[in-house]
Amino acid sequence: MLRVSDATAVLRALEGEPEWRTPNWADLGFPVIDRGRHAIFPLAGAPVGAGTMPGEPGILAEDADRLRRYCVHRYGGDFFHAEPQLDLDAGYGRRLRAAGPLLPAAVRPPWWRIGGLVVLVIRSIDPGGTIETLALHALPGEWFPQSVLAPTTKREMSRARSMLREQETADASWAWPIDAAGFGAKA
Q1: How far apart are CA 14 and CA 86, in angstroms?
Q2: Which one of 2, 31, 148, 175 has the fewest beta carbons within 10 angstroms of its own beta carbon?
């Protein structure tokens, strides 16, 4: 297994960003895949074991669970476990599914709001099926409305359509920079 960044340090850095602007992702001081209004922070990677299928526990399952528990406690949900979940059939969720198999496959990933951002803990397998990855996705908070009520005015409906279009064109894909053979020397 190769760890690239400390997830809690990335989250604390995101907490310090002003809500009114998109962070300059590279200035946060962590390896990042900068997509403009959103970013992907690679956290760890490990070679996929022989016979591992999407949905089965992998090497990074415990790390992902620990990070989700940290987010639940720090950013909401806590004992209620009422955190919102990403819809995998629309917007950014659809883009994530298209980028590669998510782990566990049947679970809709929860998300948490940090200031003007929304963060997701995503565990997946690269498109080649050789590397299991753990990453933190930081997205604009306006992609995820705070109200459960449907927009009612023309302005609100137009804004909702614009945000959905922006999500549907977002690039959720990324490739681990080291092939599976490279893990033996770096683990």
Answers
A1: 20
A2: 148
- Phi/psi of residue 32, nearest 5 degrees: -145, 150
State the DSSP code for 57.
-
The whole-model pTM stands at: 0.87
Three-state secondary structure of 125-185: ECCCCCEEEEEEEEEEHHHCCCCCCCCCCHHHHHHHHHHHHHHHHCCCCCCCCCCHHHHHH
* 133 CB-near residues (< 8 Å, 6+ apart): 42, 44, 45, 60, 123, 124, 125, 126, 176
End-to-end CA distance of the chain: 5
Q: How many angstroms separate the CA atoms of 97 and 92, rounded?
A: 9
User: Is 85 strand, coil or helix?
Assistant: strand
Q: How many CB atoms lie within 10 A of CB 182?
A: 15
